[in-house]
Every structure is written in structure tokens, then in C-alpha cells.
Specification:
By secondary structure, this protein is mainly alpha-helical. The protein is 71% helix and 1% strand. The chain has a two-stranded antiparallel ribbon.
């Protein structure tokens, strides 16, 4: 790392050895207690051993990755605080998951999402979704995290180091992942501490850079106020719908985040599907008791409220500096300009010592997410495909071995895809890339889970149609609807993107795809029995919360309300 001094190397290497050493300690202590043969549920779920704070920290560490640090910071550069909606709505989504979704999973002893679908619907739905999740996690999630993280670190070290950084991050994450979910969960606590401290340090320096640029000294508060005065449009949560004669920049912002319309559409589907129907996330809570799981999830939701300070503000600071003549080289020149360079542009100005800490924070976010996703890939492949279809008689030791092989294969394959940006991740912004391509599947998946949990009449045939139909409808709205019905209808307004093609905002596409998938599934299920024999039993006692839990929910909701009132 060419811009590193000795102290930066010391801090970064110390982080590496602390996390690795702690992970090895957890692994050895677990092995000493349980012997050589590990239980598959313990390997994949750390059953009963994660505390509420470990669950909450692991959720945040796995969620906040390069897509946030790099991608969301890049979106902050383009649209400003409006992108924080993903984080703040997530806090509410986590409340919904903790109160209503997790009790259903735990009562029915669900360990994987495909298992939920097979128990509630049928084997076909389960197999379709198992294959889908494996492809999504490898092709979209693992690959984009590796690519975006390596780009950010390589920008500081010189692009010649890109491939080396990819390999090092992959090996580091592999080391943690092979120890199982317990190792991942407890090392994530360290990762979150490093992530928050390093992230806050970067934000502080970003604000002082703005302050210095405007001749206000090294005052972070003054820098924040200067940003609000210089770029007031970047501190509005609700973007306005572009009118006639709007600039391409305004149109691009609306296509990314379509103002208040997104609150009636995709923003909820993105969050509820991600936090409630996603093996990679729910896996942290599935091995715990209800109170521990709920507290951990709500703790993560509360932490989500502060994440925009770490992942978004540096992007707005980079925009203000760039707008006023600074960071011209760091952001790229001509075709090389990328909004996703915003975070690494700020990192390049960090003083000695803090640079090592901030890169350690970024690495912590990347490695934690890689480990979490690789473990989920391993869990789904081993329990829902290998055990179910390939080797039904596999014992516990064999399942753990196959789980580790799946982890290794997933990491190697994602490295290969990352090597030359085979998926074109860098073309449209990392955060948008992930939301967009996940969004093709999210409406159908969420509809299937929602009706499966809370409407006893939903049939297996409707579930298969929902999974397939949700994807088809998403493709239709994103790619064909404008050509068939024009850019302006009662359902949407389409705008010309930078390439000159008419496009409906993808969050609006998700909303309509979900709505029509839901209608289709309801219509099909009405032809079946009034109560599906495979429906889950629910009772009101499942959804009651303790007074301490209710207090945390109220505090979170008040904070969200305060943020929206402030930045509306």
C-alpha cells in the first residue's frame, strides 16, 4: 500500500491478527468441548451459543460491507441523504421481522429458508429457491463485495494491486468461515467495533476536509453545516419528480430513488425480503431462543439508524469538495470518473495511523460479509441440496466436510468472476447493481413468504407460480413495459436514462411486480381448500413482546420519526 506509513501497516496487521487469533481461539475452545466430530446444526447455526449482542453485531457486520462503504457512499455523492432511506427503513423492517417473522421460524424449527418453503408448500418451491439463492449469493453478493472492496483498497494502493487484494480478502474470509457460524458470530463483534471506529474516523476527517476547504479551520461541525449550506439538495430525503426540461442528473437521481413513490413500493420489499426471508441474515437468529433472537435483531435495527453517518456522509462530503474544485484527480477524470470513488477519495486524505484504521474498518466490513454469505451458501447447499438429493444418509461429520467444500468452491468461483469484472459491476454503481439484480427476485420471494406465514389458504401451486411469476413480472416492468405501453401510464412514469432509453425507476417496478404477484397467488389459492393442510399454526401468544423489547421498539420508532422530520 503505497500511501501507508509504518504505523498504518502496524494497525492493519494488528487488526488481522486479533480477528484471526480470536477466531482460532473460539474454534479451538469449541473443538475441545465437542471433540473432532462437529454437529452440523452447530456448524451452520451456532445453535444456542450466540448471545443477543453477538447476533446484533453479526447482523450489522454481515450487512455493512463494500456495497455500503463504497456503493452507498457513491450514491451519497449523487443523491445525498435520500439514500439513507435504505438504512432507516431497515430499522422498521427489523422490528417487523423480530415481532412477526422470527416467532414463526423458531416455533416451527426452521433452519434454512428452503426448509421453510418445503414444509409450508412443496419440494418444487424449495428446490427452485435453493438454486436461486445459491446463484444470487455467488454471482451478485460475493462477487460484488469482493470487487467493490478491492477497488476501494486498490485506489489507495495503486491499481496494480487489485488482484492481490482480491486474493488476500478471499483467503482471510475463508479462514474465518471454515470455523463455522460460532466463529463468524463472535469475530463479527470485533469486526463491528473496528468498522464503527474506523468508519467514524473517516467521516470525521471528511467533515474537517470540508471545513478546511471553506476556511473554517478543522471543525467537523462547521464542515457539516457548510455542507448543508453548499448542497441543500443533498440533505432532502424526498426527491422531487422531474418535470419537463429536467437535467439528466435530476432524472438519474429519480430513477435511483423515486421520491415519496418508493415508500409505497420497492423500499419495503427490499428491506423486508432482505431481513426476513434471507438465509444470509436470518441464519444468525435461527439457532437462538425467541427472546435472545428478538433482542439481537432489534439491537441491529437500532444500530442501523447510525450507519448513514459512516457510509453516506463521506460521499456527500466528497461531492461538496468535488463541486468546489477539490478531489478532481481522486474522483477520476473523463470516462474514468465514478461516483463510487467517493469513499476511497476521502480515505486518501486520512493522516498516518487513521489510514490504517479506516482501511482495517473497510476490510472488516468486507471480510465479515464474505464470511456470512459463504456460510449461508454452504448451509443451503449442504442441508437443502446435498443432504436432500445427493446423499440422504450423510452423517454429521460428512455434512460439515461438504459444508467446508461448498465454502471453498463459492469463494474460488467469486474470485474468478471478480478478476476481470465479468458481471460489469463497475458500470452502474455497486449499490445500485446489487439492489437492481436482487430486485428481479425479491417481489416474488417476499410474496411467497408473506402469504405462506400469514394466510393459511395459500397453496403450493400458487407458491411456484409466485416465485416464477414474480421474476417474470419484474423483468417485464424493467425491460418491456415501456416499449409495449409507453413511458406514461396510470401505473408509472418512465424517463430517459443516460443511455437514451426509457426506464421505470426499479423500486417502482418492484412494487408493481409484488402487487400483481400477490393478486395472482391469492386468486390461485382461492381455488384450493380454505385451510391448506401444510399451513403453519399461529397463535397470538407467539407475537407478544416483553416490556423491555417494547421499550426498544418505541425508542427506535421515535428516532426514525425524528430523522424524517429533520430531513424531510
Amino acid at each position: 500500500m503505497g500511501n501507508f506509513e509504518t504505523i498504518d501497516y502496524v494497525i492493519f496487521i494488528a487488526y488481522f491478527f486479533i480477528v484471526s487469533g480470536y477466531g482460532y481461539y473460539i474454534y479451538k475452545s469449541k473443538k475441545k468441548e465437542e471433540g473432532e466430530v462437529s454437529d452440523s446444526k452447530d456448524f451452520f447455526l451456532a445453535e444456542g451459543s450466540l448471545t443477543w449482542w453477538a447476533i446484533g453485531a453479526s447482523l450489522i457486520a454481515s450487512n455493512i460491507s463494500a456495497e455500503q462503504f463504497i456503493g452507498m457512499s457513491g450514491n451519497g455523492f449523487v443523491v445525498g441523504v435520500a439514500v439513507a432511506a435504505y438504512e432507516w427503513i431497515a430499522a422498521i423492517a427489523l422490528i417487523i421481522v423480530a415481532v412477526w417473522f422470527i416467532p414463526v421460524y423458531l416455533k416451527n424449527k426452521i433452519f434454512t429458508m428452503p426448509q421453510f418453503l418445503e414444509n409450508r408448500y412443496n419440494q418444487t418451491t424449495s428446490l427452485i429457491m435453493a438454486i436461486f439463492w445459491l446463484f444470487l449469493y455467488v454471482f451478485v453478493n460475493l462477487t460484488s463485495i469482493l470487487y467493490l472492496g478491492a477497488i476501494a483498497i486498490a485506489n489507495m494502493a495503486g491499481m496494480d494491486h487489485f488482484h492481490t487484494i482480491v486474493i488476500v480478502m478471499a483467503i482471510f474470509s475463508l479462514f474465518i468461515t471454515l470455523g463455522g457460524m460460532k466463529v463468524i458470530g463472535f469475530t463479527d463483534v470485533i469486526q463491528v467495533v473496528v468498522l464503527v471506529i474506523g468508519g467514524l474516523a473517516t467521516t470525521y476527517i471528511a467533515l474537517t476536509l470540508v471545513s478546511e476547504h471553506f476556511g473554517l479551520g478543522t471543525d467537523a461541525i462547521a464542515g457539516f453545516k457548510a455542507m448543508m449550506q453548499d448542497a441543500p439538495d443533498h440533505f432532502q430525503l424526498m426527491g422531487t419528480k422531474p418535470g419537463p426540461g429536467a437535467s439528466q442528473a435530476e432524472v438519474n437521481k429519480y430513477l435511483m430513488l423515486p421520491g415519496i413513490a418508493m415508500y409505497f413500493a420497492g423500499i419495503w420489499i427490499v428491506n423486508l425480503n432482505y431481513w426476513g426471508c434471507n438465509q444470509y441474515i436470518t441464519q444468525r437468529a435461527l439457532g437462538a431462543d425467541l427472546k435472545t433472537a428478538r433482542t439481537g435483531i432489534l439491537f441491529a435495527g437500532f444500530m442501523k439508524l447510525a450507519m448513514p453517518v459512516i457510509v453516506m456522509l463521506p460521499g456527500i462530503a466528497a461531492y461538496v469538495l468535488y463541486k468546489n474544485g477539490a478531489l478532481q484527480t481522486e474522483m477520476g477524470v473523463g470516462e474514468a470518473f465514478k461516483a463510487d470513488n467517493a469513499y476511497s477519495a476521502i480515505l486518501s486524505f486520512l493522516p498516518t495511523g487513521l489510514k490504517g484504521l479506516s482501511v482495517a474498518a473497510l476490510t472488516a466490513a468486507i471480510v465479515a460479509s464474505l464470511a456470512g454469505k459463504a456460510n449461508s451458501i454452504s448451509t443451503i447447499f449442504t442441508l437443502d441440496i446435498y443432504k436432500r438429493y445427493i446423499n440422504k444418509d450423510a452423517g454429521e461429520k460428512k455434512l460439515v466436510i461438504m459444508g467446508r467444500i461448498a465454502i471453498l468452491a463459492a469463494i474460488i468461483f467469486s474470485v474468478a468472476l471478480t478478476w476481470n469484472d465479468a458481471l460489469g459491476i463497475g458500470g452502474e454503481g455497486g449499490f445500485t447493481f446489487i439492489q437492481k439484480y436482487t430486485g428481479f427476485f425479491s417481489p416474488g420471494v417476499f410474496a411467497v413468504f408473506l402469504l405462506g406465514m400469514f394466510w393459511k389458504r395459500t397453496t403450493g401451486a400458487a407458491a411456484v407460480a409466485g416465485v416464477v411469476g414474480g421474476f417474470v413480472l419484474s423483468v417485464f416492468f424493467n425491460s418491456y413495459a415501456v416499449d409495449l405501453f409507453g413511458p406514461e401510464t396510470i401505473l408509472w412514469t418512465a424517463y430517459q436514462n443516460a443511455a437514451g432509453h426509457y426506464e421505470i425507476p426499479f423500486l417502482i417496478c418492484m412494487g408493481w411486480a409484488f402487487f400483481f404477484t400477490l393478486l395472482m397467488m391469492i386468486a390461485m389459492s382461492l381455488a384450493g381448500p380454505k385451510i391448506n393442510p401444510k399451513a403453519y399454526g399461529l397463535d397470538t401468544a407467539m407475537f407478544k413482546v416483553a416490556p423491555s423489547t417494547l421499550a426498544l421498539i418505541v425508542v427506535t420508532l421515535l428516532c426514525v420519526a425524528g430523522l424524517y422530520i429533520t430531513f424531510w
